[in-house]
């Protein structure tokens, strides 16, 4: 059976990564969290003083892009690959609301996208990959055999993200999480370079009222039909 490329795009916190991880594990494919790469660049900018309270130094970031090395290493215990920035595991640090608050602005910079898209295409060149993000079916792998587009109401998405953050001990309010989800949707869908949009050949899945199991069996069925 030949391996295929599976592109999963959609709005923030629609459960893309959960289903992508399940699918990759089931099919024996590589899972790539492209959002983690934009988060890693954002984390680099934060650590290197390129971000102020409301803005960031775009020119300096572009100048320093060649100093940003992002890699993934499979963690057996977790069952998925964690993200590394210049050799350091930053999987936990990139999931904070602070990083979420800036990542969409950084992801709107064309030079950042160019570098990350090239790396993503390299990672998927042999197929057998499930990649989730915002532009995977429209830019990174336009010829992906299966393209999914995940949607859910903003309130459902904010509730899920709020539960995730509070369960790991972050002190956040539901209102702040909801605002972040809505703000990111806006920036991601209105940016000039590679805006979030459903690819013409993508299958839309609204998981507002689906359990994780229901979602997985639906997606698995689509994957099996495509392979
Ligand atoms: O998937 P996640 O929510 O972690 O992505 C964080 C942010 O990275 C998104 O809100 C978006 O701004 C950006 N992103 C992107 N293109 C991708 C993946 C993520 O612009 N392929």
UniProtKB/TrEMBL annotation:
Residues covered by the Cytidylate kinase domain: 6-222
Gene Ontology MF: a single term: kinase activity
Stored Pfam families: Cytidylate_kin
Subcellular compartments: Cytoplasm
Entry's EC annotation: 2.7.4.25
Major localization class: cytoplasm
Keywords, comma-separated and alphabetical: ATP-binding, Cytoplasm, Kinase, Nucleotide-binding, Transferase
Keyword presence, Protein transport: no
Class of the enzyme per the UniProt entry, highest EC level: transferase
Catalytic activity entry: CMP + ATP = CDP + ADP; dCMP + ATP = dCDP + ADP
Lineage: superkingdom: Bacteria
Residue sites binding ATP per the record: 10-18
Entry keyword annotation includes Ribosomal protein: no
Family according to the record: Belongs to the cytidylate kinase family. Type 1 subfamily.
NCBIfam families (UniProt xref): cmk
PANTHER family (UniProt xref): CYTIDYLATE KINASE, CYTIDYLATE KINASE/PANTOATE-BETA-ALANINE LIGASE
Protein name in UniProt: Cytidylate kinase
Source organism of the structure: Postechiella marina
Organism placement in taxonomy: Bacteria, Pseudomonadati, Bacteroidota, Flavobacteriia, Flavobacteriales
